[in-house]
Amino acid sequence: MYTTVNEDGILNNYATEPKVYVAEYPAIWEQRKYLVQGTLAALFVSALVLVAFAAS
User: How many structural domains is the chain composed of?
Assistant: First the structure.
């Protein structure tokens, strides 16, 4: 942690900043995995909505 002291003796703490990097485009198998996860999430949310309507 980076700390400075001003002329009044007050401490200022600064967090260390992480190194910046460029993200890489996902590979084709990663894209397919994201598609499967999105489909499962959509089915799960749809099931929750249907159960909520059936319970009300």
Answer: 1
